[in-house]
Structure formats: C-alpha cells, structure tokens
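Researcher: I'm preparing a figure for a lab meeting and need a structural model of a single chain. I don't have an experimental structure, so a prediction will have to do for now. The sequence is pasted below. Please return the structure as tokens so I can convert it later.
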Amino acid sequence: MLNHYLDARVSLMASRLLGSEDIQILAEGSDEQRAAVLERAGLGAMVEGMKSGRYMEQSIILNQLADIVILLRAAGDARKFLLYWVLRFEITNLKAIIRARMSGIPPSEIRHELIDMGFLASLPIDELLRTEDVGELLRRLETTRYADIVRFARSAFETQHRLFELDAALDRRFYQGLVGLAGQLESELGKAFHDLVGLMIDRINLVWLLRFRFVYKLPPSQVYYLLIPSRYRLSSSVLMELAVLERFEQVLAALPQPYRNWLEEAENINEVQATMESRFALSARKVLHSPAHGLSRAFSYLVLREQDMRRVRSVLKGRSIGLHADTIRQALGLVETSPPIAMRMG
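Model: Understood. Here is the structure written out token by token.
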C-alpha cells in the first residue's frame, strides 16, 4: 500500500514540472503570463523570496526540502536513500561555514546565508560557528554522522590547506556514499534506477575530470584522487585512463558509447556539461513516466524539479538585470527559432 501511495504522490507532484512551453513563457512572456506559470508550478515562493532579499539558492533548496518531506512520508524502507540525498543540502551549509572560517567572517554575518533545514538538520551549527579554525571544525564533525565524509576531506585539507581541495573532497565523498547506498537498492529497484544513478555519476565525473585537468591544470594523479569511485560506464579504470590524456579532444574521443556520440560536437567544458545534463534530464523524465519502482520515479522527479528551479532562477535573475529575452533563451538552451508568445497562445 505504501508503494501505491508513493507512486500516487510522485504522479501528483510531477504535474507541477515545467514543460518547454512554460520555459518559453518565462523567458519571453508578460509578467502576468510568467506569474501564472510559476503559480501552477508551485514556485511563486521563489519570487517572493527574491523580493524579500532571500538568496535564490536558499529558495531552491527549501522548495526541494518541502518535496522531500512529502516523499519521505510515503517512501517506507526506501526513505534511507532520500534522507542521504538531504545531506547534500547540509553540505552547502557546511561549505558556507568553512568559507567563513577561512576568510575570517564573523559567525553573525554567516548565519543569514545558512539554510534552515528544520527537523532534517543534523549539523551542530552553533558548535561549528564557535570553532577557532577549519582544522578544529573538521575534528568536531568526526563525532557526527558526517564522520566518514569529513575524514576524507580533512586528509585533503591537511595536505593542501586550500578551499578548492576541501570542497572537492566533501563532494566526492558524499557521492561515493550515494553510490554505495544505491548499490544496495539496485536488486530491488531494477535497471532504471541503476542507469539513472549511473548517468548522474558519469556526468559529474566527466565534468570534474575536464575541469580539474584543463582548467585547474591538476596532475592526473590528483584529478583521479578527486573523482568519485565508480562502477558505471565511466568506471574507475576508465577514469584513470582518461585522466592522463593531454587534450580535451582526446578525452572526448576516448569516451565509451553513447557518450562519445553525444559529445562529438562539444567544443568546450560548458557544452559537455549542458549536453550531459540534458541527457540526464531526458533519462529522468523517461523513468518518471514509466512503471518503474516508486523510489526511482521519486528520485527522477527530484532531479527534474531541481532543474526547473534553476531554470526559473536564471530567468528571474536575467529579467531582473534587464537581459533581452533572446539572451535568456540562449542561456536556457532554447536556441531554436519560435514564434512570439502571443501568437503561440492565440
């Protein structure tokens, strides 16, 4: 019965996802048209949050947390995966506190940037804000549920003492834990869940590899160390081979299929990221509208909902600074020629 309830909740929530026509209206439509789209999608609070001065990232995360709370009530034994997914939002808080500690920002000034996680919170925020330095902060966390994540990050920080390595290590260890948890569920949830998680991890690893190697100019050994251990198409052994290549084009040419075909026209890392994100969203939408297990559909909904909210953020920010609709459309990947909104809504 619980699975039926989860399926029903996901189907109801999926009706709020934005379609291509909605995105066009957000980019080009009138204020009234945009307000109607956002209201139907349940995203009016993002506009109100921006008007009140709330950071847009806070509004995005709070919207996602509200959805997760609803899904948790219906998830049954699968709630462990959703609860772990929540950790990525708390890591956002942790990174903000670490940045404050490294730059000497007083605790009182960083508090307003932190996300109120409500009953889902597990970070000892007040205690962390009272720490003297990043080393002490990380040691305090080794007695919490973050011990495994932080232990790896602390090792990276003690080697380099740079924020970049610490951020990357926190992200890497979080996703490594997610892969391990997903592996425990795959026999029950099936191929759709395996493929969706695999595409997400491959997408993240590929973009990280390209960025670390060709933007930050890190040596292959350090690049490989910061990537998520993987058993998917871009397995750890494949990643090791890719990390030693000297040029962007060589990496793309050495990718396994279907990634090599997907990215054959990509000319830079941004295009790789956009293409992989688009393919990931397409896969998530297919799973959402399939008879897959309820948790697979719930996870698909969450990643698509996050994509919607980030698109809304881009539109709202673009409109607020006076960007032309064509510029906003291009930023959202809406590059095809289309008739004016008024004509289409005729």
